[in-house]
Amino acid sequence: MAPSLDDESSLFNFVVRDGNGVKGIVDSGISKVPRPYIQPPAEQINKKNASKCEIPPIDLSKLDGPEHDEVANQIVRAAETLGFFQVVNHGVPIQLLDTLKQTAHNFFGLPAERKAVYRKEVSPSPLVKYGTSFVPEKEKALEWKDYISMAYTNENEALQQWPMECRDVALPYLKTSHEMVKKLLDALMANLGVELDDSNIDAFIGKKMVNMNFYPTCPNPELTVGVGRHSDMGTLTILLQDGIGGLYVKVPEDIDMEKKGEWVEIPPIPGALVINIGDMLQIWSNGRYKSAEHRVRTTSTKSRVSILIFTSPQATQKVAPLPQVVEKDGMAHYREFLFSDYMNSFFGNAHDGKKSLDFAKVNFS
Description:
alpha+beta; Jelly Rolls; 19% strand; eight-stranded mixed β-sheet; globular; five-stranded mixed β-sheet
């Protein structure tokens, strides 16, 4: 039974409590977007006005050869400007990436009651959460998205607690991407004067999570967003797009690039992974690296999936600008804090651009 589109309480219960998600609204046969999902005009995404990001992908296989320094510089340059780049020859099997996309479609195609088992309030595991939007109770307009989130502690717990429909592909995705993440972080940290090894790498990427996102078709995509404007809170995000597209990144105002302040689309490239700089890398680098402000558009033609790996410090880790960078810069632009406190602030507010960083900024006034 479809909810009353005019009754927000009924709609919210149908979508969130009963586990139907946004997919359930679409499957009910709606012809227009329910009012709680209509974004303010300033947040709506005009596809016609946006250009595509024409930066070619970085070939990570060349990090292991004579072109290492040149490729490392490409990674650093991307982190210092857009905060987003695409990589190919990354070591994650293409067949696995294709299976991941199909697995995501399969999971979100399950009956509502099967997915509702993993709702935050009732999930049998603290590692797994099924939900919709970002922080529905805090948002003025809801995001047109459903997701399943799987936190990684160790392989045994993942095998026991992650949904059986996802774990056999989500876990290899996490494991096979680890070497790539280490190489990327090694290049970024070396540029800051920090040498990575097994003794200190967990300080940067000790916490990992796999998310599968589902963006159902939308009757009025121009009125909604799949994900609102935000930067990611962690260290590096690895994103697998499908071929539909809809990911937009804001070109920062304070860098030497064309299209400053504009939104550019990151076009899907077959076999590529998208790398996204998070807030923690911006803070460790004292602002040299830019966490990317990004958002996702919906579409009326075909449901879209994306599969992400979020890497971040452990909750108990202290974070502050690296002393090597502060010494060069003469001052720290961010204060020291516990990562758990940053997480609480991040998840305690609706998406709002890069305001998440205000939590850690040093006020010079």
